[in-house]
Amino acid sequence: MDRLIYTAMTGATQALEQQAVVANNLANVSTTGFRAQLAAFRAVPMSFGDGNTVNTDTTRTFVLASTPGADYTPGPIQQTGNPLDVAVQGPGWLTVLDSNGNEAYTRAGNLHVDTNGQIVNAMNQPVVGGGGPISVPPGSEVTIGKDGTVSALIPGDPPTTIVNVDQLKLVNPDPATLKHGDDGLYRTADGNPADADQNVVLAPQSLEGSNVNPVSAMVAMITNARQFQMQTKLLESASQNEQSANQLLNFS
């Protein structure tokens, strides 16, 4: 009896967790540079023992979440005309500083200059250049090139006096070494900063959209709802079977 209960219970729990992931993806279908999160689960035989020996019951299984990941397929790129908007073309990431001052990575290139003259992202996190956060002259006209070069032109100066301020730190670590944080940023699994990669190319005055497919996300939500329904029905069946077994024992 407990085999059915444990399997159905853990199956329902994982269906709920997977539904939360899909719902988060659907909520970010319009978020700049968002990467769809993946969720999967698998059946694992139950292990039991007295602390000294461990036995495995292949007829009794739990449902456990597999290693989560993300879909790194590039999203659509759309031109905006904003000189501070950038989109990463192909593989690669922009580097920013998180709330703890550590390097983190994002595909969201909707940048702006804050009141302190620093280039920051939409979450007001400083964008990292060759020597740390990038500062530009007050009131200057800022442009960003395909290689991440940040140029500034002070108002009133002729175009020939434009100067290169810094260069965005563009990285391209192995996706398998990245982990997604609750703040929406990605970090290396070992916590060490990734090296700059000169092969990463930007699309200036453009933004990359979310790579979430809303139709697929809706289908996944319906599928998860059906799976959760099936697991709860199995729990009801296990309860009914237990009641019937108790009645038979009472009559015996």
From TrEMBL:
Keywords: Bacterial flagellum, Cell projection, Cilium, Flagellum
Coiled-coil ranges (or none): none
The Flagellar basal-body/hook protein C-terminal domain, residue ranges: 205-248
PROSITE patterns: FLAGELLA_BB_ROD (PS00588)
Main location: other
Positions of the Flagellar basal body rod protein N-terminal domain: 5-35
InterPro entries found in the cross-reference section: Flag_bb_rod_N (IPR001444), Flagellar_basal_body_rod_CS (IPR019776), Flagellar_FlgE/F/G (IPR020013), Flg_bb/hook_C_dom (IPR010930), FlgE/F/G-like (IPR037925), FlgF (IPR012836), LlgE_F_G-like_D1 (IPR053967)
Protein's UniProt name: Flagellar basal-body rod protein FlgF
